[in-house]
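Sanity check. The docking grid for fe (ii) ion depends on where the pocket ends up, so I'm generating a full predicted complex first rather than guessing from homology. Inputs follow.
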Amino acid sequence: MHTILCVDDEENILASLQRLFRKIDCKVFTATSGEKALTMFKDQLVTMVISDERMPNMKGSEFLGRAKELAPASIRILLTGYADVTSAITAVNQGGLFRYVTKPWDDNDLLTTVRAGLSQYELMHRNRRLEEQTRHQNEELAVLNQTLEQRVAERTKALEAHNEELQKLYELLEKDLFESLDMVLAVMEAHSPRLVGHSRRVAAHVEGLAPFLGLVEYDAKIIVTAALLHDLGLIGIPHEILDKPDPLLNPAERALLQEHTRVGMETVTALSRLKMEGPIILSHHERYDGQGFPSGLKGAEIPLGARIIAVVEGYDHVLAPSYGTPIIALEQDAIEHVKAEQGKAYDPKVVESFLRMLSGSCREARTVTLKDLGEGMVLATNLSTPQGVLLAPKGTILTRPMIKRLHQLPPDKMPAHLEIIPKI
Ligand SMILES: [Fe+2]
Ligand SMILES: [Fe+2]
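Predicted complex below; grid placement will be based on this.
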């Protein structure tokens, strides 16, 4: 509600103003002098001040000037006689008064003036509120701008931490995968140590061949994993069939053996992490000329990984013809076999790269003692006892259990030095 302070040294004037302003929704206070009125500002939020000009001691215009300092937002009106109009106009212009009203006033005119003044007060009040809001929002915006850089930095840090977590998770999964692979290979080794030896040699050769074929790391990893597991489906096949030379197999036994590609594929694709390896394992016995199994795929229809494994495992099978026979062939025989099958069983381009890898063998063999053996090293020559009994063929990749077994052999059963190729 608005508050109007009326100041006049004549009580009857104040009384008539009070009566008149009952028509307006407001509180009216009165004072009989400027001095008294000035004390009332402390306790009131004054919307409007109406003062007579002619008063003893303090003139109305002077009082209104002082009132402006105490309540700058208030609307100020001067009541003045005709004789004082000139000074009233000066006060309006210089003192920031809203209006002056001559005495005696017309009630309606005065009410209209007062109502207009109150409307102006409300308008100014709304403006001030809007200005305050804008200023507040600008301040918030300034603070926001100041902290924006900090918040971006914090967000970046949070993202980096998140990425680090993902990386850790990925490494953990990766580690788990290799631990799982180790477990699978341990199961294979329990079933047939030669089968694992073959798988590890094939995988090591595939890994070495990858750069010669220009494979990207991601594809190379998939093909190396597929090479490690390519004969997984042979687990469970009785040894008498597994170790039988190929020409001696009857049709049922051969069919059972050939099933290992499908069984291997189904086993690995059950693990979502190994979905990409499945089709490679399924096709590793396909031939480039379309005469292989299980689907008779031809040329580029065969997944590249399977074409690579086929060459490497063909080479390895010449060196170790079946899982139960000793190594009898020379490396040159294996190379001749691969060359002879180039374009027939094997992809010519893969053979070309494989031969380049073998001839330019980038890793040099070195001589180590038994205690220097480490997991992943590859035997550069056949490992035999001083008595000539073959312990492991050339190309065997040393595993932890294998090294442990070698350490357990009596000293007279072990050569003093071994030729190895360092871990890739
Ligand atoms: Fe194989
Ligand atoms: Fe196979």
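Relevant for the grid: The radius of gyration is 51 Å.
Also worth noting: The mean pLDDT is 84.
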